[in-house]
Write a structure and sequence with these properties.
The chain is of the alpha+beta class. The protein has 2 helices and 3 strands, in the order E-E-E-H-H. The structure holds zinc ion.
Length: about 60
């Protein structure tokens, strides 16, 4: 089931727009996805204090509203 963002028209995965929630999208669909690399390995998530993870937390918080 695929959906498109009401704001920008980009594809929405698991409730996250690949554009509006880009950091959260990348984090959950790539870093947290055991199938993403296809070789049984997972990407190492960025540092908790990085700008990227700060954005992920902000975007996740806005998604729960
Ligand atoms: Zn969007």
């Amino acid at each position: 089931m695929s959906k498109y963002c009401e704001d920008c028209g980009c594809k929405v995965y698991s409730g996250r727009c690949s554009n509006c929630h880009e950091a959260s999208f990348i984090y959950h669909e790539q870093y947290m996805n055991p199938d993403y690399l296809g070789n049984g390995q997972q990407l190492t998530p960025p540092d908790e204090n990085s700008d990227f993870m700060r954005k992920v937390r902000e975007q996740d918080a806005s998604l729960r509203r």
